[in-house]
Structure to design on (1339 residues):
């Protein structure tokens, strides 16, 4: 049993965003995020420092996360918070390459954090000019009140960019119209096969059927009528 | 059976246009002159009624038992012709394909009432099997037509809407 | 044998048909046919009504010159109209440009059936109208030299000459004359008047330009005749007007009328005096109450000051003759009329009846924006406040008295002690007695003896299908109207004194339906949340939406309201309380008695605020509430920095909306589950920085967890943005600058092929981001407003009502803007129309056919009792009400349904089957005997 984990345990998570629509992002820059959190079960909480995240390039989304481990005292506080259905609050002070400093506040259910064993994802949303607009803490959960086995945070940092808006797809539509027009023109040429050549797959089974049924006609009463109804009649 | 009995009572070349009751009329149209249903039967009974009757009953009852299985190729053919689209005629056909074997299964005891002997159980079993095969065929057809509610989408109408846990309100600051 | 073969061949044929794609086209054709909705000629006006308004009067004039006597009005809504003098009906109406570009600045006197009007800003447009037809005869722009000083420019129209008067600080007045009909610049002149500065308060009372300088007792009025080339500035002290003892601050204003005069108010607007400016400024030594409105005119050769006072529903018109040495006052009228409320005279016309007797008509504009014509008594009143509705609710009507009697019967049953009187006999007696009462009431009604039991009107009761409702409309003037939905009749009106919208620019007021009319004997209750005119702090006014009676009266809150919301739970008396957040983030519950109920659900209740100025969005939870106090604590905050973007819209879903279908069936028969998050809010921002100037951003935010769900950016686009947010989709329109056209984009959100939680939706535990489908379409018209239809259970498909700039309201099926409309035929799903980039505007889809409605500010939709039908109330300058059935009226029989025929056929079939049965048995019997 570790009595104290107060020594800084540096955790490095390098996360590469799954998809980056770099075309919408005209700029590149860096972000520096200082995280402050609170385990208080009160309306106005007291924040203590949690760690620091440095994103050297917004475009690549590479992040260096340095967070000390969680003190046992704090884990107990988190447990109490979870028991009361309270929320773990996180304040993120983001410094961007454009020189602005913005404070964001986000919160999640404390029990979700326990359930996921102190594993969380920090989603950083940027606007089209690469300024941060929201920092969301997300934890998959499930909601649980058990003591976590881990004593340090496992934080995944994800950058989110705005998608490009849809545009009326006139080009494809015109192409489609032209293709249809062509198909119609060529269809007129192609369709001069004989009736039989076109519909032989329908005609032949029909003929076979007629032949078959006429051949089995004397027995027809037996083959068809020997179901339930036919049997009853006898 | 009753038809045959009546026919044997009649003269071979008579044609009776006046029907005595409506039951008879409803069962079958009058046979053409000179034709009697039981002609083969009559011949056989004439010649060796006693000796062959047992054999004939067995043969006849095997015919009966194998009937459903013989129907399978025919049903397959009907199914092929009906296509997989959903419209009134294919639906009617598939309906018939399902309902007939089920009806037959319900009247199994009645059908085999007349049949006795050592093969009775086997015959019943074969008949039963044949009908089951037919039902399966029909179900297969339903499946390929997409009539069986086997997909999540078939139960979508019964999915209750999610109840909300949290309630929220707000908007622009008024002042 | 025969039938199976036949069916096989038919099946075969069928298959053949289907394979040749005929069927697919047929389906498409059928669905398109289904979409076309229209009205038959005999249905015109049967389900809909329209009312036209002109707005609050800015300028008015009696037109006695032309053959048809009428009143010409120009209004704050940028409308010029002619009103019938006898009835107040609109003879013609012209709607000018919207907002600033159409603001009416000057209005000439009526002469020769013609009128000159100046409107707009930079450039100002001078229009020259024919008054009989309302047609423009000529129009020309004035190129403005000083665009930033446009608000200081004064206009004067005299004898076909338009004067553009621009005061220049510390220098003088620049007067430019134009020929008002042709636009020809006649002359320009600068008159030295160095007294004009930024501090002076100036008015133009032709021919004088008067400025007030200083606000102490030493205040001086400077004036100059601007039409005299060699005129010198002159001055007059305030003391010469009021004598000694008057105290500032003083205010000057132009007195309406056809004689140049100004009024100077003193002692904090407690009293005022007039200064006549005809030849030489002459003060009128007559004190006028500061509250009273004045109008100056001449009866024949006598100058008369008309003074209007309003005191407790009594309006008095006083006339003071100025020509005599000693001004004499005479009381002209004393009217007690409900429609008048602090009126002002905006125009008069007098005819000489006999010597010294004049018959005058006064056009009065009340403070609640209504217009009345006074001719001894009030001839007519137009409720022009309805031209600016700020909040609407459609409320169900209560049950009829008879139904209520039945309801009370069951109500009693509930309240009784179960084990003591729950016996069969007692129940039977009660039932019999109540039915006897009903029979009695019925007989009384049949004989016409029924006494009027309640004060409500007999026709204002709930109908079978819940189609007849009460529209409660709150106007910016603080007047509330109850409009019956069948014919559009104004049932009641309420003036809430001294209130205004929360902010100056938007007139926003909030109307909540706290209790519907389904909870007899509790009366239905609506409450209006607004701001106090004097202090700016909040006020709540509760009233009964059916009869317009105040319930709890006006409650003044001693704090400024930041946000409010209606709680989803009710108290024991079925009242939904209002949660109010004040500027210091303290939460309050109205009524206070419901605090316990509110705090009990505080854990799951959230409120969010959006600050336009700072771009800060904050979410608050009430989870730390104590049973006595509702406490809000901030749980999330994010910043849409105003450096980069300006928030223009925050759109949440309609809280009463229900979604019936939880998913969408795909081509392979799997289900794509919808992402239906009731806490999802769409935020639209417009780029502000130089690089991002023409970008439009849309963010989807979960306001409970504060987590962003999706964001999208449209480049090279601009507003106006109109947005509809419903179910799992969004539809929004914007202007594409690149292609110079209006476009509609749609987003649709899906959870995926599996649903994370089948039974409940919690924003706090749903962490997966939705799949977003998107598509854009070209819309070949300009859009004024958009709204989705809503029905009771959400089974009926949704349509989008699009108010077009040309006055039409288009019903656009959502199916047409479905983002899953694929251009690729292989990827297409069942029932989805192939993609076409341009949305068609079918004339059949215009729900208001030729009843054009202009300047639409909003569309309110409400479910009716019928699942198929949605009630639509369009408001703006005009009001329009109708009902729409997006999936056709599948739950009612057609109007032309032949009940008799079906009854006759059924009866005939039953009878004939009995007869044939009899006959058949007889025949059988006969045959058996043969």
């Amino acid at each position: 049993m570790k009595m104290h984990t107060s020594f800084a345990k540096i955790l490095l998570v390098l996360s590469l965003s799954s998809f980056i629509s770099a075309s919408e992002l005209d700029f590149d820059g860096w972000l520096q995020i200082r995280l402050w959190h609170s385990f208080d079960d009160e309306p106005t909480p007291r924040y203590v420092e949690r760690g620091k995240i440095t994103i050297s390039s917004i475009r690549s989304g590479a992040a260096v996360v340095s967070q000390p481990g969680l003190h046992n005292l704090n884990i107990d506080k988190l447990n109490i918070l979870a028991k009361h259905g309270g929320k773990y609050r996180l304040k993120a002070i983001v410094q961007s390459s454009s020189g602005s400093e913005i404070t964001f506040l986000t919160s999640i259910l404390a029990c979700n954090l326990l359930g996921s064993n102190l594993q969380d994802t920090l989603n950083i949303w940027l606007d089209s000019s690469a300024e941060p607009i929201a920092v969301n803490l997300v934890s998959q959960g499930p909601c649980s009140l058990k003591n976590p086995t881990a004593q340090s945070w496992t934080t995944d940092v994800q950058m989110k960019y705005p998608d490009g808006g849809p545009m009326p797809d006139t080009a494809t539509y015109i192409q489609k119209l032209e293709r249809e027009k062509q198909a119609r023109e060529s269809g007129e040429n192609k369709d001069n096969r004989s009736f039989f050549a076109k519909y032989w797959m329908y005609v032949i089974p029909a003929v076979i059927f007629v032949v078959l049924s006429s051949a089995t006609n004397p027995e027809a009463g037996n083959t068809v009528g020997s179901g339930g109804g036919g049997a009853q009649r006898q | 059976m009753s038809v045959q009995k009546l026919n044997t009572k009649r003269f071979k070349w008579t044609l009776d246009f006046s029907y005595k009751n409506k039951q008879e009329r409803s069962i079958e149209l009058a046979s053409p002159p000179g034709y009697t249903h039981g002609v083969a039967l009559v011949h056989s009974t004439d010649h060796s009624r006693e000796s062959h009757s047992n054999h004939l009953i067995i043969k006849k009852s095997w015919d009966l038992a194998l009937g459903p299985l013989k129907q399978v190729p025919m049903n397959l053919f009907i199914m092929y012709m009906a296509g997989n689209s959903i419209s009134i005629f294919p639906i009617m056909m598939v309906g018939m394909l399902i309902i007939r074997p089920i009806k037959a299964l319900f009247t199994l005891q009645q059908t085999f009432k007349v049949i006795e002997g050592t093969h009775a159980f086997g015959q019943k079993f074969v008949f039963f099997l044949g009908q089951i095969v037919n039902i399966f065929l029909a179900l297969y057809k339903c499946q390929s037509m997409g009539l069986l509610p086997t997909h999540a989408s078939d139960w979508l109408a019964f999915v209750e809407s999610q109840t909300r846990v949290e309630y929220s309100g707000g908007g622009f600051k008024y002042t | 044998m025969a039938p199976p073969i036949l069916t096989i061949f038919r099946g075969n044929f069928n298959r053949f048909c289907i394979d040749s794609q005929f069927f697919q086209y047929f389906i498409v054709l059928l669905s398109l046919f289904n979409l076309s909705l229209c009205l038959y000629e005999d249905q015109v006006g049967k389900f809909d009504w329209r009312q036209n308004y002109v707005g609050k009067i800015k300028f008015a004039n009696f037109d006695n010159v032309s053959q048809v006597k009428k009143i010409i009005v120009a209004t704050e809504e940028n409308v010029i109209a002619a009103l019938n003098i006898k009835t107040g009906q609109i003879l013609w109406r012209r709607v000018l440009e919207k907002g600033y570009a159409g603001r009416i600045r000057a209005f000439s006197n009526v002469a020769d059936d013609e009128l000159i009007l100046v409107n707009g800003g930079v450039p100002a447009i001078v229009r020259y109208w024919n008054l009989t037809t309302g047609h423009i005869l000529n129009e020309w722009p004035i190129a403005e030299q000083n665009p930033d000083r446009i608000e200081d420019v004064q206009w004067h129209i005299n004898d076909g000459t338009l004067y553009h008067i621009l005061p220049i600080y510390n220098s003088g007045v620049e007067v430019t004359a134009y020929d008002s009909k042709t636009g020809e610049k006649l002359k320009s002149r600068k008159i030295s008047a160095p007294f004009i500065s930024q501090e002076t308060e100036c008015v133009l009372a032709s021919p004088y330009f008067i400025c007030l300088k200083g606000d102490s007792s030493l205040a001086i009025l400077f004036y100059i005749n601007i039409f005299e080339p060699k005129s010198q500035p002159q001055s007059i002290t305030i003391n010469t007007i009021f004598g000694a003892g008057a105290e500032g601050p003083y205010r000057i204003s132009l007195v309406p009328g056809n004689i140049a005069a100004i009024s100077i108010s003193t002692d904090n607007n407690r009293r005022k005096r007039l200064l006549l400016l005809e030849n030489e400024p002459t003060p009128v030594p007559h004190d006028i109450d500061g509250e009273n409105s004045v109008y100056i005119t001449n009866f024949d050769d006598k100058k008369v000051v008309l003074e209007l006072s309003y005191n407790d529903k009594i309006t008095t018109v006083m006339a003071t003759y100025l020509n005599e040495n000693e001004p004499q006052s005479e009381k002209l009228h004393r009217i007690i009329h409900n429609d008048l409320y602090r009126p002002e005279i905006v125009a008069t016309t007098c005819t000489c009846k006999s010597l010294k007797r004049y018959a005058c008509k006064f056009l009065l504009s009340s403070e609640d924006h209504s217009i009345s014509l006074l001719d001894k008594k009030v001839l007519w009143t137009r409720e022009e406040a309805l031209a600016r509705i700020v909040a609407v609710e459609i409320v169900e009507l209560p049950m009829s008295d008879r139904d209520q009697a039945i309801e009370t019967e069951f109500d009693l049953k509930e309240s009784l002690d179960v084990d003591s009187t729950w016996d069969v006999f007692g129940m039977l007696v009660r039932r019999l007695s109540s039915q006897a009462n009903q029979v009695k009431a019925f007989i009384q009604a049949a004989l016409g003896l029924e006494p009027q039991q309640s004060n409500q009107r007999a026709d204002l009761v709930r109908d079978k299908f819940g189609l007849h409702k009460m529209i409660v409309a709150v106007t910016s003037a603080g007047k509330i109207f109850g409009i019956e939905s069948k014919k559009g009749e104004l049932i009641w009106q309420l003036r809430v004194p001294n209130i205004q919208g929360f902010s100056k620019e938007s007139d926003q007021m909030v109307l909540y339906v706290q209790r519907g009319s389904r909870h007899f004997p509790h009366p239905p209750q609506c409450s209006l949340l607004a701001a106090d005119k004097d202090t700016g702090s909040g006020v709540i006014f509760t009233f009964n939406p059916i009869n317009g009676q105040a319930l709890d009266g006006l409650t003044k809150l001693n704090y400024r309201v930041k946000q409010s919301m209606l709680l989803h739970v009710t108290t024991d008396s079925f009242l939904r309380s209002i949660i109010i957040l004040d500027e210091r983030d303290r939460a309050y519950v109205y009524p206070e008695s419901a605090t316990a109920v509110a705090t009990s659900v505080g854990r799951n209740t959230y409120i969010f605020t959006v600050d336009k100025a700072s771009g800060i969005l904050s979410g608050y939870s009430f989870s730390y509430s104590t049973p006595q106090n509702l406490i809000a604590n901030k749980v999330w905050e994010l910043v849409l920095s105003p450096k980069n973007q300006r928030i223009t819209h925050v759109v949440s879903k309609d809280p009463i909306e229900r979604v019936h279908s939880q998913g969408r069936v795909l081509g392979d028969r799997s289900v794509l589950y919808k992402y239906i998050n009731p806490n999802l809010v769409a935020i639209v921002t417009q780029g502000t920085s130089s690089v991002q100037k023409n970008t439009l951003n849309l963010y989807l935010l979960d306001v409970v967890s504060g987590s962003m769900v999706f964001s999208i950016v449209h480049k090279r686009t601009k507003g106006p943005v109109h947005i509809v947010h419903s179910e799992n989709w969004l539809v929004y329109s914007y202007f594409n600058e690149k292609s110079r056209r209006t476009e509609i984009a749609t987003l649709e959100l899906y959870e995926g092929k599996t649903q994370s939680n089948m039974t409940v939706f919690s924003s706090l535990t749903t962490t997966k981001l939705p799949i977003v489908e998107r598509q854009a379409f070209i819309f070949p018209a300009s859009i004024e407003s958009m709204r989705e239809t809503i029905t009771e259970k959400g089974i009926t498909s949704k349509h989008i009502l699009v108010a077009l700039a040309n006055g039409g309201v288009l019903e656009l099926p959502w199916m047409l803007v479905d983002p899953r409309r694929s251009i690729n035929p292989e990827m297409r799903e069942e029932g989805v129309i192939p993609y076409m980039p341009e949305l068609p505007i079918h004339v059949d889809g215009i729900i208001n056919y030729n009843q054009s409605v202009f300047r639409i500010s909003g569309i309110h939709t409400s479910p009716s009792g019928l699942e198929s039908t949605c009630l639509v109330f369009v408001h703006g300058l005009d009001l329009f009400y109708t009902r729409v059935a997006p999936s056709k009226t599948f739950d009612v029989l057609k109007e032309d349904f032949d009940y008799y025929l079906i009854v006759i056929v059924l009866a005939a079939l039953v009878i004939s089957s009995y007869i044939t049965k009899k006959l058949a048995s007889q025949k059988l019997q006969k045959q058996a005997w043969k």
Summary: Residues 399-447 of chain C form one domain. Helices of chain C lie at 2-19, 22-35, 238-242, 401-415, 418-421, 424-447, 595-600, 899-929. The first strand of chain C starts at residue 49 and ends at 51. The first helix of chain C runs from residue 2 to 19.
